[in-house]
Amino acid sequence: METLIAGAGAVGGYFGFVLARAGWPITLLARGERFEALRTQGLRVRSHGEEHTLQLPVVSDLAGFEEGSIDLVLATVKMPDLAPLAASLQRVLAPDGLVVALQNGLGADQLLAAELGAARVVGGAAYVGVDCPEPGLVRHIAGGRITLGALPGIDKARAARLSLHLEAAGVPCRVCDDLRALRWGKLVWNAAYNPVSALARVTVGEAADDPGLRDILRAAMEEVVAVGRAARVALKDGIVERNLTIRPEYREGLTSMRQDAEARRPNEADAILGAVLRVAAEHHVATPTLTLLHALVTPLGPAASARNPS
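RE: above sequence
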């Protein structure tokens, strides 16, 4: 199964590494410094005190692929890069190929479905603690599972078959019945920990331990739950308390927004926070904490870059 890891950063790099070690034919798609590091030094993954390196094919665009030659795409680019990726996949994705959307926030599944057809899109959520200390190096802290879900009205059998293939390759995987609830369930965590950790420059564990930050986390989560339920999303009781309890192995994790802030990159504030705020406006739900976090974190990367040009 010819597989493209579209976005070979922390999440994509980790899952590409696991699948390649299981014998899957993997190609990495990356740009800039990351592309150069992967091309010259290979994909390096540091996990549980050991570092491993794999030399894998890496490309900076899809021009070299034959028409319909890619069977599976793990789409791990961030939301701002997803539309151009979807357009470029039109030519190279096999007619019965699949794209797994592993973005945070809302809208990835619908964007890909509009471009490629809903039957070729599987939604997903990755639960893995990873970051990139430097281009081409993935630091794996904990976890590594994926949950898949099909868009409404689409046969779940394809997602189920893919789940079995991923399990056999060493990626714990299951299929959920409600993709919408899966997306919103992860938003409860992301809309709180991502902006708070980026603004306070703390780890996940430090954010949960600090009394003041914990109050902000709780308020943000409760607002996401209120918005989701107003939109008739089936969010489970107790989800806020579960998300405020950090398992020991995840405590040192760095969120993607904190990594973006420190690298002076634009972040996913719009996909994660902005998406919730738009739904909140539709349903007239008050979101003072999320509104403030969105306003503070949105300009963080670009503003820092402007102040400190590299």
